[in-house]
Amino acid sequence: MQKTLIGLGAILAMMTLAGCQTAQGLGRDVSTAGQVIQQESAQAM
Predict the structure, then answer these.
(1) Total Cβ atoms within 10 A of residue 39
(2) Which residue in 8, 10, 38, 44 has its CB near the most CB atoms, within 10 A?
(3) Cα distance between residue 1 and residue 8, in whole Å
(4) Which pLDDT score is estimated for 14?
(5) How sure is the predictor about 37, in pLDDT bands with cuts at 50, 70 and 90?
(6) Rounded to an integer, what distance in angstroms lies between the CA atom of residue 34 and that of residue 13?
(7) Which residues contact 16 (CB under 8 A, 6 or more apart)?
(8) Which residues contact 4 (CB under 8 A, 6 or more apart)?
(9) For residues 24 and 16, is the Cβ–Cβ distance under 8 A?
């Protein structure tokens, strides 16, 4: 499970760096990443 989260985090980091060009875009990307991490952790419990 930990490897999955690390891989997911790496993918999200790459998407964030490639896809956001403004501070607002970065905020949306970080928010989406946080939601995904929360969903993954809830499923793990």
Answers:
(1) 10
(2) 8
(3) 11
(4) 80
(5) confident
(6) 12
(7) 26, 29, 30, 33
(8) 40
(9) no
Residues ≥6 apart with Cβ < 8 Å to 31: none
Q: How many CA atoms lie within 13 A of 27 on its CB side?
A: 3
pLDDT on residue 20: 57
Residues, the chain, total?
45
- Residue 9: is it exposed, middle or buried by C-beta count within 10 angstroms (0-12/13-18/19+)? middle
Question: Does the reported pTM lie above 0.90?
Answer: no
Cα–Cα separations (whole angstroms), residue 10 to 15, 23, 45: 9, 20, 22
